[in-house]
Specification:
Blueprint lengths: L14 H12 L3 H12 L7 H9 L5 H10 L3 H9 L15 H15 L3 H10 L6 H14 L3 H13 L9 H8 L6 H12 L2 E6 L11 E6 L4 H12 L3 H25 L9 H4 L15 H19 L1 H12 L4 H13 L5 H10 L9 H11 L5 H13 L8 H13 L15
Antiparallel strand pairs: 1-2
Helix pairs in contact: 2-4, 4-6, 6-7, 6-8, 8-10, 9-11, 10-11, 10-12, 12-15, 13-15, 15-16, 15-17, 16-17, 17-19, 18-19, 18-20, 20-21
Length: 433
């Protein structure tokens, strides 16, 4: 134990009272410690070195005492003091040893400062390098769910939380936050959370059909941070009722995400000329059906479809812009959405739709069959005789590029046309093929 030396022969005279003080601290009951800590931290940061040494060297280093500090120190000056003494350092590291005392300080930082004094908390985060460690991330996100801070407080933290969500663990806290948002005051948070939770990501899986040459073959699947259940809830209660201001923004986000999905697939050589996992698992755009994607990626397609339907009904010129953009994108799913949009577009006359199908040579393109059939079923019968004749001629001609599939596709095309019972086509009592 170090102690100040006194002059003369009694230079160790300070040792006895120092030892007595140390013994008193050891035997002080917990309630007395709490009263002493509370008396210190309920005032501004003291200049008394003995009190500060007691907090730093005793209270904040022992689990059963640190709780008293975090329970009663509620003002930003004590936050700055704790930062200056290195007590918060582990909260702002990607990988570090995170003990029980760190957990206490993480909860203290999240509940008492991130939620109640966001400016001071953000200043600490800036000084610490802007890194939110995984345990602190969880405490802040959980505190938002439990304490429901003011809208403007949550809005400042959402960009930081979405940018630093721990990659190794999935949780629902950001989905809860999205569902707790209110429109219009939380519009920025809503769009940031929707963009984050529906953004496609790659998950590595084991190749189902591994070969002897590559028994450890690795495959991929597309996934997203959000879950189907909570995102559907947010769509039904928050997004869909507010499509008037949100439709354009949602379509822009969806366009970016689907393009990203194809960039991910192409990185692993999974976008083939006639098939890709994203489009191949979606039998029809109109509804999910069996065998379709049933997670957040599948929901993204549903939301894109429904937002497009709303835009067609209320902003047809804007809908045409998106359909043109999608069909030129080179992404099969976006192109299928464009064909679906043409089928749904009441502001297009039937001849225009038939001409569009022919101009884009869609009658015999593999992978677009359900949406092309939808256009034909809705509008072939209403088209002019000359337009119907062109469609029929093209349908019967087939495609030399699809050897081995031409006859089947001809039958399928004829089946779609026969179903319309329209002039220019024979009606069969019983279909075959």
């Amino acid at each position: 134990m170090t102690h100040p030396a006194r002059p003369g022969e009694q230079k160790h005279a300070a040792l006895a009272p120092a030892l007595q003080g140390w013994v008193n601290l050891i035997w002080t009951p917990a309630l007395d410690h709490e009263e002493k800590v509370m008396a210190i931290v309920e005032r501004p940061v003291t200049l008394d070195p003995e009190e500060l040494d007691y907090l730093l060297e005793r209270v904040c280093k022992e689990i059963h005492l640190a709780q008293f500090f975090t329970r009663h120190a509620k003002t930003p000056d004590w936050l700055r003091w704790a930062e200056s003494k290195g007590l918060l350092a582990n909260l702002f590291k990607h990988a570090s040893t995170f003990g029980e005392i760190d957990q206490m300080f993480g909860l203290w930082f999240a509940q008492d400062f991130a939620c109640k004094h966001p400016g001071d908390a953000l200043a600490v985060l800036r000084r610490q390098g802007g890194i939110i460690g995984s345990p602190l991330w969880y405490q802040i996100a959980l505190s938002f769910h439990q304490l429901k801070p003011a809208h403007e407080v949550a809005a400042q933290w959402i960009p930081l939380l979405t940018a630093s969500q721990p990659p190794y663990r999935r949780n629902d806290l950001l989905e809860y936050r999205l569902c707790a948002c209110e429109f219009p005051q939380d519009e920025a948070s809503i769009l940031l959370l929707f963009e984050h939770l529906t953004r496609p990501r790659v998950r590595l899986t084991k190749e189902i059909l591994a070969t002897s040459e590559d028994p450890e073959g690795v495959d991929i699947e597309l996934t997203a941070e959000g879950s189907d259940y909570w995102l559907r809830h947010a769509w039904a209660t928050l997004l869909q009722p507010n499509l008037e201001p949100l439709a354009d923004k949602l379509l822009l986000v969806a366009t970016s995400h689907i393009q990203r999905a194809y960039m991910l697939l192409r990185s692993f050589g999974k976008d083939h000329p006639t098939w890709d996992p994203l489009s191949g698992l979606r039998q029809e755009i109109g509804f999910a059906g069996r065998g379709s994607l049933d997670d957040a990626v599948g929901l993204l397609i549903d939301i894109t479809r429904d937002a497009l339907r709303w835009t067609i009904a209320h902003r047809p010129t804007r809908a045409d812009f998106f359909m043109d953009l999608w069909f030129a994108s080179g992404c099969r799913m976006l192109k299928r959405l464009a064909v679906f949009g043409v089928a749904e577009s009441a502001h297009w006359d039937s001849d225009r739709k038939m001409e569009w199908l022919l101009a884009n040579d869609l009658l015999h393109v593999y992978g677009y069959k359900p949406e092309v059939f939808l256009v034909l079923q809705k509008d072939y019968a209403e088209a002019s005789e000359s337009a119907r004749a062109k469609i029929l001629e093209r349908a019967l001609k087939g495609s030399d590029a699809l050897e081995g599939r031409t006859e089947g596709l001809r039958n399928l095309q004829s089946r779609a046309l026969v179903g319309t019972k329209c002039p220019g086509l024979p009606h069969h009592e019983k279909e075959t093929g």
